[in-house]
Amino acid sequence: MSIYVKDMGQGMDEETCQKILSKDDYHTTTGTNGEKGTGLGLAICTELASKQNGVISVESVPGEGSKFQISLPRGS
To answer: pTM of the entire structure?
Structure first.
């Protein structure tokens, strides 16, 4: 099963996409409206997905937004 979330925010470069999903490095950037974050949200989601044998991925284009996908195995 996969769930997608897409936004039309400021987008990210490839290096930032890799950093935000790292459990070893909390990374945050300023949001579209100048809001600040802690960098913990995606780290927590990635950890929870991993514990369910799932993964989170991100595709992003600077200036165009981002698409996040969580894929989890179907229950038996």
So the answer is: 0.74
At CA 70, angle to CA 32 and CA 49, rounded to 5? 110
Domains in the chain (CATH in brackets) are 2-71 (3.30.565.10)
Cβ–Cβ < 8 Å for 67, 5? yes
E strand intervals along 1-76: 2-7, 55-61, 65-71
Given pLDDT bands bounded at 50, 70 and 90, which one contains residue 50?
very high
| Residues whose CB is less than 8 angstroms from the CB of residue 45 and which lie 6 or more positions away in sequence, other chains included | 56, 70
